[in-house]
Amino acid sequence: MKKEVTAEYMHQLLKKQVFADVDLSRLETMSSDERREFNLAQIDSLIGRTDYCSTIDWFLGQFIEDDGTELDDNPLYDEESVLVEWYLELVSLGSSLRFHHPFDLDIIQPGLAQHAEEPAKDFVITNLALISWLRETSYRRVAAMVARIMIEEEFSRVVAKDDAVQDYYAEHSDTSFLNHHDLSMCNDYISGVLESLETVRVHRQKGQQLGLNDEQMRVTDALWGWVPHDYPSEYVEAAKEIVAAVDKAMPDELVIRSRNGFLKFKNKVFVKMESIVKKHELSVDLMDGYNITVGYLTDWLLRKYDGGRNINEQYI
Predict the structure, then answer these.
(1) Checking CA distances to 17, which of 31, 54, 214, 290 falls within 20 to 30 Å?
(2) Tens digit of pLDDT for each residue in 50-75?
(3) Considering the entire predicted model, what is its pTM?
(4) Three-state DSSP string of 84-98
């Protein structure tokens, strides 16, 4: 017969496995500012205590399932105390960081949050208060996880909207090498994320200053095959003409979309795009199926043809 897990047992287990050297009696008298710093210090320690975050994973696993739901057999959820309240604060922030979910940034420092109802909007390179915090905070492991939320939120924003930018972010958001136990890795990751986000911000800003809309910038990026670039005038003009030509060739809204219909549409507009590319003497071969530009433009065309929805693989 399985022995029932008691609240006392859980307290002892957590103390032994995680908080053996931490004076938890201080919680009773801490101010809100002191408690916030205490929480950050503990989470930063948990993240880096063992390789690849195994300690914080173990701690979170005592309270929540992988999907974030509460564990049914943790008796601490039935206890009302300052200590349990504190455990759950760590679980809330720790799980947001570990699973890369946006959260109220005022939890880590008052003044960082500007969109209480939509916290994801605060994880952006234009949130200068957050950028300053990332550069200056002593909690480098927490900062690395905040940076990861930033790059993943931005990556989600550009997926299917600009394949060249998407690929740029994919290269700069790889965490397969990142061991949070290593502070130098954390610092390098933070710097890399901020640099890539700022690079794309400046890139987009320059396109907007040239009067380009998002679609024209996407096609310019596709023609060049990589970002950033300096928006060469011949590529910009070609992109404008290609967008206009494709818009003109789009089938009526009532036409039923199909695989064959898309292939006919694609073949028709690729002939027109090829003539535009040759006219502007671009170094692009649209007849080469292995050319990355061809892939970028095909994805763009498919989304326009399919009404902006996600790529339907049956069309390919």
Answers:
(1) 31
(2) 888 999 999 999 999 988 899 988 99
(3) 0.91
(4) HHHHHHHHHHHHHHH
